[in-house]
Amino acid sequence: MTDATRSATEAPSQTKNKMEIGDILNILPHRYPFLLIDRVLELERMKRIVALKNVTITEPFFQGHFPGKPIMPGVLIVEAIAQAGGLLLLTEVPNRDDMLMVFTGIEKARFRRPVVPGDQLRIEVEVRAWRRTAARLEGKAYVEGKVAAESTVTCRLVPRTANAAAPEKAGENL
Predict the structure, then answer these.
(1) Higher pLDDT among residues 132 and 144, named by residue
(2) Parallel, antiparallel, or unpaired: how do β-strands 120-130 and 39-44 relate?
(3) What is the rounded distance in angstroms from the CA atom of residue 31 to the CA atom of residue 113?
(4) Is 12 part of a structural domain of the chain?
(5) Number of H helices, E strands in the chain
(6) Which of the residues 41, 66, 114, 128 could staple to 136 if both were Cys, CB 3.0 to 4.6 A apart?
(7) Is 30 an active-site residue?
(8) What is the CA 15 to chain-centroid distance, rounded?
(9) Residue 65 lies in a domain
(10) Residue 64, class by beta-carbon neighbours within 10 Å (0-12 exposed, 13-18 middle, 19+ buried)?
């Protein structure tokens, strides 16, 4: 079986430490225009991930943010941080086809410099706390070695189906 066709139910122990777009699409549910990760350069299971997002003028948000002065919205940079973290954590979930990783909080978001077409975001995320169905992640997005944005995000693993039971909350304070 090729990496691009690897099942989403593959055992976590077989997780690669680098990923191309086909691998990412097998794990994350996001699709164009909301997929904000193009490649994974490093992945240290349950600890850290380094991912790339190539920012191009064809991104749909540049049409209105801002005409004549395109700047990537900061909230989408934080979303890229969350997607990288979700990619890291979902590699450890054997039934990830049945689950979603959703935001539950954004803390300490700081935007240091604008991100514009032609930039490449290097997104570095570290796990600060991880429970069975929730996590706290600290992320930074760099452009040319300089911090463009940073944030701490919290997320929760929830069933994809609307009628499925909610995950337990006991003992999961992060």
Answers:
(1) 144
(2) unpaired
(3) 26
(4) yes
(5) 2, 6
(6) 128
(7) no
(8) 16
(9) yes
(10) exposed
